[in-house]
Each structure stands twice: as C-alpha cells, then as structure tokens.
Amino acid sequence: MSGCQCLLIGGCATIVVAAGGRMTAGQASRAEGLAAWQQVYSVLTHPRCINCHTATAYPQQGDDRHPHRFNVVRGETGMGVPAFTCAACHQRVNADSTGVPGAPGWHLAPLSMQWQDMRDQIMSSGAVCRAVTDRSKNDNLDGAGLLKHHEEEPLVLWAFQPGRGLDRSPRSVPPLTHGEFVAATRTWVEAGLPCPAP
Fold it and tell me: Could you tell me the residue ranges of all domains in the chain?
C-alpha cells in the first residue's frame, strides 16, 4: 500500500493509517467499539481526568471533585490568570513532598471538552462520546489523533501516575491501566468511533 501503514491491533485486526495520519475502520464490530468506548469513558470520567475537564470557571481537586483551593480560576486560556498561572505551582513532575501534582504543560481542558454539566453532574456516556468525536470541538483530532493523544499527552500519562497528596497517601488512579486504556481506544477507533445512542 503506497503511503499507508498497516498496524496490528489486538493480535488479529488491522486498521490502516494513511500517510496523513488518518485511521480508517478495520475489523472491530460496532458492538466491540461500543464496549471499548465504555472502558474509555470509565477513564475519562474518573476524577484524575474530569477534574480538569470541567464546565466551571475553576479546576477541581480530589476524588470528591471539590473546587481548587486558593480560589484558582480558569482564566482565558485555561492556564490560570497572569498573576497566578497553573505553572506557578504545578511543575513538570509530581512534588510528593508538598502534594502538588505536576506534568509538562499543566492546564485545564478547553470548555469545548467539558465532561460535566453546569450542575457539576458527569455527562452521559453518549454526550461525552459525541464531544470527543466532534472534530469542531476537539482540535480537529481524528481517530489517529485521539489515539496519539491518549498514548502520549503528558497530562493523560500523569493521570495513571498521579503521585501523592498532601497527606502523603497515593492519589487514586483510573480503573484501567494506561496500556488497557490505549488498547480500548484502539479498538474504539478501529470500530469507527461509535457512540451510544442519546
């Protein structure tokens, strides 16, 4: 295949990645894709992810998703305000001695990628799926871009190694390992990014 690359997914099915990085559906069925999406959704709506994928003017913290301490606000770019940016406290790595989490490029997700409503309720699986797959809301990422984001984005990687809190206890992690999350994303992409019915 000129300009294309075939990838082995799950040991038997293939998807085609064209030269431009676009994925086309392979052999995963819609049912397999929907099951894989539910696994992806279980990670996306875990506090490690949804605390920054808020509909609010501030980030949230902890497993109870309380407002960020010190009256931290989103700001215009999702990186805080000029005198108090995210990077003022959040460095490139976790600071377990102080309980401050860290990863390169710490920031809130854009409001277009909110996974909760204005009442702080987590959105349904179908609603989050439609937000993630709406290329006008999602930085024009197609399936290949989403898979790369889930594999490599420092803040996604942080969610699976979130360090310790102020009390020195380990922060909770999503219900899947990073490898399982990426594998579920691959299956979902291979199936054509199906979303549950509204």
Answer: 4-190
d(CA 148, CA 141): 10
Other beta carbons less than 10 A from residue 69's beta carbon: 9
Question: pLDDT at position 26, please?
Answer: 63
Strands 84-85 and 13-18 turn out to be unpaired
Alpha-carbon span 44 to 21, nearest angstrom? 23
Dig out the tokens for 43 from the structure: 């990670």
Cα-based distances in Å from 65 to 13, 40, 43, 120, 174: 39, 20, 15, 9, 14
- Would the pLDDT of 116 be above 60? yes
Whole-prediction pTM: 0.85
Closest CA to 83 of 73, 93, 96, 92: 73
For residues 189 and 141, give the distance between their C-alpha atoms in angstroms, rounded to a whole number.
12
Q: In sequence order, what are the residues at sequence separation of 6 or more whose Cβ sits closer than 8 angstroms to the Cβ of residue 148?
A: none
Which tokens go with 54? Answer: 């808020």
Q: What separation in angstroms does the CA of 102 have from each of 7, 66, 87, 105, 106?
A: 33, 19, 9, 9, 7
Q: Report pLDDT digits (tens) over 132-163.
A: 999 888 776 789 999 999 999 999 999 999 99
- Give pLDDT tens digits for 87-110: 999 999 999 999 999 999 999 999
